[in-house]
Write a structure and sequence with these properties.
Keywords: Flavoprotein, FMN, Monooxygenase, Oxidoreductase. With 355 residues, the chain is of the alpha/beta class. It has helices at 9-14, 31-39, 53-66, 82-91, 105-113, 125-133, 155-165, 179-187, 197-200, 209-217, 240-247, 250-268, 272-283, 290-295, 298-307, 332-349, and strands at 20-22, 43-47, 71-75, 96-99, 117-122, 139-142, 148-149, 170-173, 192-195, 223-226, 234-237.
Length: 355
Amino acid sequence: MSDLSLPTRLTELAGVRHPIVQTGMGWVAGPRLVSAAANAGALGILASATMTVDRLRSAVREVKSRTDAPFGVNLRADAGDAGQRVQVIVDEGVKVASFALAPSRELIARLKDAGVVVIPSIGARRHAEKVAAWGADAVVVQGGEGGGHTGDVATTVLLPQVVDAVDIPVIAAGGFHDGRGLVAALSYGAAGVAMGTRFLLTSDSTVPDAVKARYLAATVKDVTLTTKVDGLPHRMLRTELVDGLERSGRLSSLLRAVRHASAFRRETGMSRSQLVRDGLAMKHGKDLTWSQVLFAANTPMLLRASMVEGRTDLGVMAAGQVAGLIDDLPSCAELVDRVMSEAEATLRALPAPGA
């Protein structure tokens, strides 16, 4: 067991023991995983986009029943009911609010006025500069190696850009799974690392065993980047389904998107008018076609098929490139301790200045 203490601006800001974040993955980052990560000393983030508002409140309370450690909730900033979800965070005394997209200045102010730490995820320097100017407390910077929706700039290029551009703590994401990566991120000036795929592949994750087995069998070359799921770059495991999506025509893709939009509406309790409003919010400022907005419903429902139902033949499996390097399923406690032990060994192995 490692006794290494690495206090950083992230540990001070979030009140956690270790500079490690478990990211808010839809259908994956539920109460069990989040509380296990929090109890291990990391910052666990609950994914809320696929929940109703009532389910979110219930999930937050379940996490609180499992741990006394700080944790966060991830929100979609462009969701029509984002205000209601923010109110749940405030009412329940959640420590951190994270966002997959840049929240508005007003949303940031509302959270900060309530004492909530605001940490948006960004994929470009200009986005980090914008949210920092609006009062965000920290940012998660995800490079192109990361799973799910991602950009095309590598972490090793994007991270130092953002560190040099903003004065708030920067958390590195995309390509991290061990203690060597943590030390590397800190050397770039980051305040910690955020990991998704590595926490997905733990014994505390509720992802079905058959799906975990597909991840563990994957090589680096089995992780691909496609725009065929929802029109935006999305990193995931290559499967027969993904290959089929790549070959599919526009009409069949649109019909599938319509079915998934209806299913997603039922899953989240959204009204048709709210679905349209959220579509307009997504389209605004992102230069998306209406087809791309419609395709957006594909992602949560295809992820649900695999991450909840275990149907690797019917669902997609978001994955960072590090999936090809992971071959075991430790508990969150074992994982965090291992990362800190590896970080300690890495630091000790570094040559002394002037040696």
